Amino acid sequence: MLVRRGSVRDILAKNGWEEHYIAGQLDALDILSADASPGSHGGVYVHEAEDRVSGFVSVEFREWNRLGQLHGLAVDPDLKRRGIASALVGKAEGYVQEEGGRGVYVDTPATNETARSFYEALGYRQAYVMPEYYDEGLDGVTYLKIFAQQGARGGARMVMFVGPAGAGKSTLAKAWCATRTRAAHVELDKVRHLIVSGRADPQAPGPLQRKQYGTSVAACCTLVREFVTSGYDVAVDDAVDPGGFERHWLPHLWGIEFSVVVVRPSLEAVLERGAGRSKWVRPDVVRKQHAATSRWPTRRTIDTTGQSVEESLETARRLIAEGP
Questions:
Q1: C-alpha span between 217 and 24 (Å, rounded)
Q2: How far is CA 224 from CA 116, 270, 292, in A?
Q3: Tens digits of residue pLDDT in 153-166
Q4: Residues 44, 45, 51, 53, CA torsion sign
Q5: Among candidates 167, 232, 220, 171, which has minimal Cα distance to 193?
Q6: Is residue 290 within 8 Å of 270, Cβ to Cβ?
Q7: What CA–CA distance (Å, rounded) separates 123 from 228?
Q8: CATH of the structural domain 158-322, one choice from 3.30.70.2570, 3.40.50.300, 3.40.50.2300, 3.40.1170.10
Q9: 58-62, 83-87, 190-194 — which one is most confidently predicted on average?
Q10: pTM for this model (two decimals)
């Protein structure tokens, strides 16, 4: 459809948008109003009241992840509090659903409390923060809404396999992935080893080691979210106790369905397995990890001592089916 650029410009200017943002928005309207491009297409919706354009929203749908993105939403300040913005977002969401989409996301400045409250009221939840996305010192916040029929239980999920070094959690995680139609395995240790210069020894606690652990966890969760959003189940493994999981992992997992499986064979079995591993971990560290994992609830823990991978997997699948 043809959009009256002058009317849209007036609305954006009255809302206090800076000129370079207005120019970018008008360019996006031209693109989305034109013929669809391969893998990506969109729509523009205009609301009229009192014989003039009162608001608009533009939305782009991407086929690769089946998500729509709101590029622009603005309402004439003189006509706010009339449900116009909500109606426009509803139109955009309907467009994405008709295209077979799973949900919609939108970016907004972290300082825009009005917009953030508005999207939260419509069922959007904060997915992540983008440092200095809009300008120096001005972060962006991405809000995501997964449509109910796609976000219900039974969709893609994450399973965290927890246990001391040598417990066999990575082996079990890979075995579980093999039972899924589409699955990815994210190993914290491998993500941490992406740091090729200045990497701290994970077995030597200290400020740098703790900071790098937090960074690696955040990177893992970004991968998890991307895979889950695209319909992949994800197995993650880490030697973390309940307190560490709550501090470091949980804040990044909002909106993701997950379960925890604690793989904890006897200490003797873990030490014996560890002695033959290429990835050597000091025995004193293994003992501390083994003791720390005892703080997880017993109902989430499986003792795999003397079990085959198949036997352990059967027990793990039962725990996963029970939920978090």
A1: 35
A2: 24, 28, 25
A3: 446 889 999 999 88
A4: negative
A5: 220
A6: yes
A7: 19
A8: 3.40.50.300
A9: 190-194
A10: 0.53
